[in-house]
Amino acid sequence: ASSSAGRRHGGFGPACAPTCLRATAAPPVPPPAQALVTPGSFAELDLDPGAVLGKYELVAEEEVGERGLTAKRFRHKATGAEVLSVDAEDTNNVFSCNFRTLPKDNTGVPHILEHSVLCGSRRFPVKKPFVEMLKGSLKTFLNAMTGSDRTMYPVASQNKQDFFNLVSVYLDACLNPLVLDPVKGPQILKQEGWHFEAAAGAGAGAG
């Protein structure tokens, strides 16, 4: 996973329209109550920097002068997950959850899974949370992409409340997708994993 957040953040107030998705606890393993609260600011997280950073080791740090930013790469001690933190003078708050997805053949499985992951999650069990966020978010960027060897789920917003809403939806989609559910998963794959094939002898110029 990787994330980037600017030092200058866009303001927010009563006129903001946060994303219209709402978290719902789902049996049999409901998340802790505090996990259902989406913070409105970085200050509201009330994190102990020592406790958080103690779970990671700083692998590399680099100043990129021509871009005016500082990049730090951390590794989570327990899982080996890597976090790239980019501190820059930018009004956008940016987050992206990225996975290495090396294809084994040409059937397009990574791309199918990219779409399937965004078909609801444990906290947000709606059919198309991505579509709901497009309608109700103040995002400056919202998408998912499959590359030749990786799959990325980036979001960005200048509104901090909206940013935290987007991140909470995307993180739950990536870590607790309904496609893993034994009942809903096969239905999602049937919905997302089909394609057309031309019949034998029916070339582009046929007919």
Explain this structure to me?
There is one protein chain. The protein has 207 residues and is an alpha+beta fold. Helices cover 23% and strands 25% of the residues. The chain has 5 helices and 8 strands; from the N terminus they run βαββββααβββαα. Strands 1, 2, 3, 4, 5, 6, 7 and 8 form an 8-stranded mixed β-sheet that branches. Strand 3 and strand 4 form a beta hairpin. Helix 2 crosses helix 5. The radius of gyration is 20 Å and the shape is globular. 22% of the residues are buried.
**Order of H and E elements:** EHEEEEHHEEEHH
The largest sheet is: 8 strands, mixed
Number of strands: 8
Secondary-structure-derived class: alpha+beta
Number of helices: 5
**How would you describe the shape?**
globular
Share of helical residues: 10-25%
Average pLDDT for all residues: 78
Residue share in β-strands = 15-25%
Q: Could you tell me the radius of gyration in angstroms?
A: 20 Å
**Separation, N- and C-terminal Cα atoms:** 49 Å
Name the poorly predicted regions: 1-22, 25-36
Layout of secondary structure:
Elements: E1 2-6, H1 49-53, E2 56-64, E3 69-76, E4 82-88, E5 93-100, H2 109-117, H3 129-136, E6 139-142, E7 145-146, E8 150-157, H4 160-175, H5 184-192
Parallel strand pairs: 1-4
Antiparallel strand pairs: 1-5, 2-3, 3-4, 5-8, 6-8, 7-8
Helix pairs in contact: 2-5
What's the quick description here?
This protein has 207 residues and is of the alpha+beta class. It is built from 5 helices and 8 strands, in the order E-H-E-E-E-E-H-H-E-E-E-H-H.
